[in-house]
Amino acid sequence: MGVLRWRSWLDSRIAASSAQPISKLDLEVLIALRIAVYQLGWLSRIPVRAAINESVELVKRARKRSAAPFVNAVLRKIGASDLSQQRSQSILSASSTEALAAISAHPPWLVERWVQAYGLKAVSQICEYDQSIPVPAVRIRHPEAEGRLQIEGFELVAGALLSSARRVLHGDIGRSATFRAGLCVVQDEASQLVAALVGTGANILDCCAAPGGKTAAIADHNPGGEIAAVEFHPHRARLLRKLLNAKNPASDAQDRNIQVIAADARNLPFDKKFERVLADVPCSGTGTLARNPEIKWRLTPADLDDLQVRQVAILRSAMGQVAAGGRLIYSTCSLEREENEAVIELAMGLQSSFRVIDCRTELDRLQREGELVWPGVSSLTRGPYLRTLPGVHPCEGFFAAILEKI
Questions:
Q1: Which of 27, 65, 248, 310 is at a distance of 20 to 30 A from 265, taking alpha carbons?
Q2: Alpha-helical segments (H) within 320-358
Q3: Dist CA 228 CA 218 (whole Å)
């Protein structure tokens, strides 16, 4: 994960000490160099000689023995420099887009478009958050969950956005018996907030349900309600079915009626209409780079256009399933306008029977009910939409729009 977070920074140090251009290096050789440079710069408990020797051995085992002397020479040259001082530059102090991209190890094209959308100060906070290990958040599903987690040795603090959330300061939550029993679920607070915006209804549709975190939250908030959860891939639908049809641990009885359907959200197979519809569409995931740093190296500008086509198709299909007076929540974990506001504009251009509801009305409701504890509701919105920014807010970057069927 460290190598993925800091890849461009590592490559710049390798390039400065290599007689060969990075583009000419075999991938196995480059990866071995990256691993060693990360160890040299960040992992102080690993001796320099061990980091160098292990990467030389990696190259040999990858059948690139002829490159071993080259790797050894490059790493010894880098090891003689003060990497800790080189990487001590503060991301928040970057004075230009170019400097910010270089210091924070983000693709320049991505940083540039973010600065145009959100300003240099906010993007500095985003990049700093992306380069840190995020504190896990959990959603409490049972009154006993917090106490049991503390008995197990987990250090918890209150959620920053939601009263039902806790942050895990110490401990591997995946090993918790409380977690395995379903008394709590790992879910970023922004994701929890999107699920809370769905509200209540007798029948609810989740168009892109896997892996199921938001669907489970909706089900917990709507005991006795009928929920249809759609997933495109059959194997993921089977896993989703197993997760969602488990008994709600906060209830003494099986009070769920959840139907999981393997189908294409662009062509939803329903005759009936729904009071609430969630379209949490596939997206670039640029709001989740702290947990998924590989995205920034894989994504290209052309991908945003391809994703937008699919997102508009899903949203238009979802609009056709909303009952009169019902609401549709469109959401992504992307920071890109093409996947957010532009999708709403394209879909609404052909739909005169919907209107955009200001998210602040729902956020105010959640605050009155005691669920939303973040003090500045207006800071969570951008126009009529929900807009969280990593680092600016203590969570991942999510976008949500609420559309009401007139």
A1: 248
A2: 341-348
A3: 11
